[in-house]
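ligand=adenosine-5'-triphosphate
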Amino acid sequence: MKRKSVFICVEGLDGCGKTTQTKLLVERLKKKGYDAIYTAEPSRGEIGSFIKKYCLHGGTRVSSIVEALLFAADRFEHVEKEVIPALNEGKLVVSDRYVYSSLAYQGAAGLDLKWIEKINEHAIRPDLAVFIDVEPETVIQRLKPKKSVMENLGTQRKVREVYVKFVEKGELVKIDGNNSKQEVADNILTVVLGFLEKTV
Ligand SMILES: Nc1ncnc2c1ncn2[C@@H]1O[C@H](COP(=O)(O)OP(=O)(O)OP(=O)(O)O)[C@@H](O)[C@H]1O
Ligand SMILES: [Mg+2]
């Protein structure tokens, strides 16, 4: 088993294929001999469960400040209880959403990105952040019936604009998510293996 403490996150709009691709990536990395694990946000913890019920599936959207604070609190628990312990065991951790989701969703809702960064400063930086890019119109089609309060065209368009800014800044690596699941998985694996080969 190859020991590599590496933290990767997979980002993108609702329904772009994050869960599908994060799980496929972990399977494929395991086949290549890496001790990879899947994790996700909102986390499995109490705050994560509360967010799913209160913020995402409550019918109406709560204040974006409340959302940002709850997601930041959940993230810190996720990092402290799941990510860091796994990295300390030499695992390669792949997270289905991370801090860029807060920047994109609450940033799209009008909050200052600097403030969102500030309340997330305790969250460790990912070594590699992948953005699966799919048009907002496509994800809305894929997500019928609707699962959360975020799943409308206006929100998804604004969220994508913030993600694209981070791609332009070089913080997110963009992968075309319009291809078949296998092609998207191949492209993500190529980027990840390229990154792993460059790191110790
Ligand atoms: N490349 C693809 N082409 C077509 N459909 C896809 C592709 N990738 C995923 N899907 C389908 O789109 C839907 C959403 O995929 P998935 O649940 O992986 O997205 P997600 O980004 O995790 O969504 P959410 O943000 O809601 O958790 C699923 O029905 C999945 O099978
Ligand atoms: Mg998902």
